[in-house]
Specification:
Layout (H helix, E strand, L loop, with lengths): L2 E12 L2 E12 L3 E5 L6 H8 L7 E6 L6 H4 L2 E4 L11 H12 L4 H9 L15 H12 L6 E5 L7 H16 L3 E6 L2 H7 L2 E6 L2 E7 L8 E6 L5 H7 L3 E7 L2 E6 L5 H10 L6 E5 L3 H10 L5
Parallel strand pairs: 3-7, 3-8, 5-6, 6-7
Antiparallel strand pairs: 1-2, 1-4, 8-9, 10-12, 10-13, 11-12
């Protein structure tokens, strides 16, 4: 896959504060890449440098294999901070103004309004919009130039559950068109549900980068319950068992990589043990995220 963004040693210091330190990562075309980290981890500063609104201290980055230029930035749409529009203008008027500023074709306005599902409210003043509608209008504005890449900084921040679901659905719809999306968030659920890849920042340092679908690989935990008195002994003797613990009426078994519940069930059945409860629990993104943040060394 083509590399859309290549970052090498990107650094930003505000006096003695190291907001971003020696950041190196790549974003491939067509991916939905999540920048994940707690508040103050350097996500917004990183996006600011990539969009040229924050001056870097050191390092470099390339868009589409080339150093950043104003021409290349026209291929990138961004929603940074909170959306700012004229409250006394309608949604349509605000987009018309932004289209003129960006020198985008006015024919794109109705396309983006339809995409973000605001055609029915395009003639209402911006001040009457809900927070979710304002965020969708901001995304519509970012798409006016039909960009190849869309950058979103905390797109669901402050939204209610319905607004969050709407933005998530919109992100998936935009990604389905083949656009590359770079999404900064501190919400684990958001990243796990919409992103294909993610990176974890901690105090400006890259701690981890990889595909979302590898979350849960490795050791797994299985809940097992049976009326057979020899269950614990049999579980402990299984070749894939790392640890067995009692948890209420059932046992929790940690299995090493390469072993699963089906293999364990077959093993128990061959031992003459029938289970009445067998549930697999894979490591969640939250568990992996907390493990990464608690580890002092980048991976």
């Amino acid at each position: 896959m083509e590399t859309v963004l290549n970052i090498q040693g990107l650094t930003k210091h505000f006096g003695r504060i190291k907001a971003v330190e020696n950041l190196t990562l790549q974003v491939k075309a067509g991916s939905v890449f999540g920048l994940l980290g707690p508040n103050g981890s350097g996500k917004t500063t990183t996006l600011g440098m990539l969009m040229g609104v924050v001056n870097k201290t050191a390092g470099s980055y390339e868009w589409f294999g080339q150093p950043p230029t104003d021409r290349l930035r026209k291929k990138i749409g961004a929603v940074l901070e909170h959306p700012i529009f004229y409250p006394y203008l309608t949604g349509l008027q605000n987009l018309e103004l932004n289209a003129r500023i960006k020198e985008a074709p006015e024919s794109n306005i109705q396309k983006v309004l339809e995409l973000v599902e605001l055609k029915d409210r395009q003639n209402d003043k911006f001040r009457t919009y809900s927070l979710g509608m304002k965020q969708r209008l901001a995304i519509a504005s970012a798409l006016l130039n039909d960009p190849t890449v869309l950058i979103l900084d905390e797109p669901t921040n402050g939204l209610d559950p319905m607004g969050i679901a709407e933005i998530r659905g919109l992100i998936k719809k935009i990604a389905a068109d083949g656009r590359t999306i770079i999404l900064a968030s501190h919400l684990l659920d958001e990243v796990q549900k919409v992103c294909s890849h993610f990176a974890v920042l901690k105090r400006g340092v890259l701690m981890y980068s990889g595909p979302v679908d590898v979350v849960g690989e490795g050791e797994i935990k299985i809940e097992v319950e049976s009326t057979d008195a020899g269950l614990r002994e049999a579980l402990s003797a299984y070749e894939g068992t790392v640890e067995v613990e009692r948890a209420g009426s059932f046992f929790e078994v940690r299995l090493r990589e390469g072993h699963d519940s089906a293999a364990l069930n077959r093993y128990l059945f061959n031992k003459g043990i029938t289970v009445n409860h067998l549930v697999t629990h894979k490591k969640t993104l939250e568990e992996q995220f907390l493990e990464i943040l608690s580890d002092s060394s980048p991976k």
